[in-house]
Amino acid sequence: MKLLRIVLLILVMMSASIEMTFAKSRTLTQKELQEYKPLKANEGRKLMPLSKAKLSDVHLVKAVKYFDIKSYEINYDDLIYTGGWSFDMAAYSRLSKYEKQKIRSVKPVKSKEPFGATYFLDSPMREIYNLHYIDMHSNVHTFASRKKLLDFLGEIDTPTELHMALLNREGEIRFKRLGNIYILRHKSVSFEDYDNDAYDCSVSIYHEIMDMKGTILLSKEISYKEYRGKKCEKL
Known about the structure:
5-stranded antiparallel β-sheet; alpha+beta
């Protein structure tokens, strides 16, 4: 009788585990997505600055010794280094002299679907990001595509990983995690040149929902305002 109870208990636990796995993996319907209300102006949290991030702030698919994200300005066929973030300097200091030389001299690459890009106003140039990392065998790897970034991150379950997954979005972002999804409030500012080097500008607020794989499930503009002249300088 005792053995039977144990068997039944195991079966119940297995059943519950299967249901939980299904609940986490299934795709939300549009009706269910509409039930998540947009974040208010000061609701949720701001994204953690990548300049302060450490390797301990990410849970990657595979172990790495070090990685960084660098930005490059595209000027016709040239890629010119303009800055970036290291993850983290303590990890970098533990690299051998040979490994440091390898990652410093790595060549940047382009992607048709980059994980981060900035377009410059009134200029044919733009800025893209590359991620460079050293694996546990001291080999250096580089990529620029969003797909490879998401593969690198795996399940997005830390604020730093969320920030990295949203590098293709410019502007101020606040977030709130609910179970296995993120509710995002995205403030985007656009500028338009006019006479005397002043600008017209517009501010859009988007309500977005992203799953832990980095897929945007919902993106909806909930506010749009236009401004002129000096008001734009404060945005």
